[in-house]
Amino acid sequence: MNDVAANTLKRFGETVGKIKKNKKLSYRKIAANCNIEHSDIKRYVDGKINPTLLSIIDLAKGLSVHPKDLLDF
């Protein structure tokens, strides 16, 4: 993975993490509200995996935000 991709995943994860923290949600609570395993949500926050478009939409649903809010970094 090149530096630009790694940096983008890191920033995406930081954004998801901030929303999670501000809403005081656990990974399991987010997972219960969407179709993503809690372990994968943690990996997104850690910048370890690249989410698909459908995953971003599901994750936004789990966080009760618009998908564009996850990409605003």
TrEMBL record:
This is XRE family transcriptional regulator. Residues 21-70 form the HTH cro/C1-type domain. Coiled coil: none annotated. GO terms for molecular function: DNA binding. PROSITE patterns: HTH_CROC1. It comes from Pedobacter miscanthi. InterPro entries: Cro/C1-type_HTH (IPR001387), Lambda_DNA-bd_dom_sf (IPR010982).
